[in-house]
């Protein structure tokens, strides 16, 4: 089954990004970022937003936040030290840039105190590289040093455009964003080419049951999943995220109550979440049937773009409680209470 | 959030965020609003908002709506505090004043 393209993967990226930030901030960011993602228009803008959230989460990780908060305060932009707090996650390009800025600061300090005999030649040699000249000019400008710039202009060639504020991102970053965007948007194409296993599936562990065979799957948190015959699911289990995708067939889930880790299930383009429940989910073509035996399952609203396309209006999240069955079809959805024998009949397949 | 620290690290992106809020100092803006108005990327915006909120320049609250009724998720809204307004004005004025470069 080839999943249809939807903003779902971006929401997944956003949730995954939020989970990189230590609790309790991550719970706030999950909701805030999803709301902001919802408010943005355009696929590319959403992709850019999702990838940006990953970067923001890496920036906001505990060590970085601590480093920023413990750093001596700076009064204004010009007094900022050229080096940012060190982080374990540094890309080689930024390391090189930081080292260059450090060297530029050192040379500016030497210029202030006056160059020694041997330092003049060293500075000339260092300034031969265009990137060094550009860097030292920018550092001098940031430190509000017109005198430094005047001295530098006598020593080497400086260009005025180096000192102008750059609006927008650099061409390299834009090109990288476009390439990543093309990569993500081509995922459905990959799914068509390789229909056996989608990209999203490949991120988790896939379980498949054969014909006339039930399969039991247990997760480290105690979640029990029973697969009806000819069923396929993919399970993700990380520190702060546990979830599964029902690709085809029918499965029964017994999720133990855990306050901190909601269990998120993706099936037929819809998302289901619970903090602890026993429920059965059947996927028949585009139709989904959810039967809750115990606890509460939240059927998340389809994302706005999909909701409007399919239902013509926004569909709010629905709570399905014990004893209720929810039918989701392409033309609508409905939840209704079922009698106990009906509920038992729906899960009778578990008894063989 | 602990003790408020009113001095924060400034960068061009931080200044741009402050500019957006200073354009309408009494308005409450969500992250998406700031992205649209300031042309900022989410990767730089949210750490800045978090830092400025920690420093007491901003306060934030959840939008008071019922998502089911409104037909959309609730947003986190940010607003400049009086302290933030004062500091932001000073910083931006300082930036504009000191930005002159030799010709």
Q: Which strand order does the major sheet of chain A show?
A: 5-6-7-9-8
Uncertain segments of chain B are 98-103
User: By helix and strand content of chain B, what is the structural category?
Assistant: mainly alpha
Q: First CA to last CA of chain A: what distance?
A: 26 Å
In total, the number of strands of chain A is: 12
Walkthrough of the structure:
The complex is a heterodimer of chains A (352) and B (103). Chain A has helices at residues 8-18, 25-39, 43-60, 62-70, 92-113, 117-126, 130-142, 146-155, 171-185, 187-193, 199-202, 304-311, 340-346, and strands spanning 205-208, 215-218, 224-227, 232-237, 242-255, 263-267, 270-274, 277-284, 287-299, 318-321, 324-329, 332-337. With 352 residues, chain A is of the alpha+beta class. Chain B is mainly alpha-helical and 103 residues long. Helices cover 52% and strands 12% of the residues of chain B. Chain B contains five helices and three strands. The longest helix of chain B is centred in the last third of the chain and has 17 residues, at 82-98. The radius of gyration of chain B is 15 Å and the shape is globular. The chains are: A alpha+beta (352), B mainly alpha (103). Chains A and B meet through helix 2, helix 3, helix 4 and helix 8 of A and helix 2, helix 3, helix 4 and helix 5 of B.
Features:
heterodimer, A: alpha+beta, 5-stranded mixed barrel, 42% helix, disordered N terminus, B: 103 residues, mainly alpha, disordered C terminus
Quick structural gist:
The complex is a heterodimer of chains A (352) and B (103). Chain A is of the alpha+beta class.
Protein topology:
The complex is a heterodimer of chains A (352) and B (103).
Chain A: H1 8-18, H2 25-39, H3 43-60, H4 62-70, H5 92-113, H6 117-126, H7 130-142, H8 146-155, H9 171-185, H10 187-193, H11 199-202, E1 205-208, E2 215-218, E3 224-227, E4 232-237, E5 242-255, E6 263-267, E7 270-274, E8 277-284, E9 287-299, H12 304-311, E10 318-321, E11 324-329, E12 332-337, H13 340-346
Parallel strand pairs in A: 5-6
Antiparallel strand pairs in A: 1-4, 2-3, 3-5, 4-5, 5-8, 6-7, 7-9, 8-9, 9-10, 9-11, 11-12
Chain B: H1 12-23, E1 29-30, H2 31-38, H3 42-54, E2 58-62, H4 67-70, E3 76-80, H5 82-98
Antiparallel strand pairs in B: 1-3, 2-3
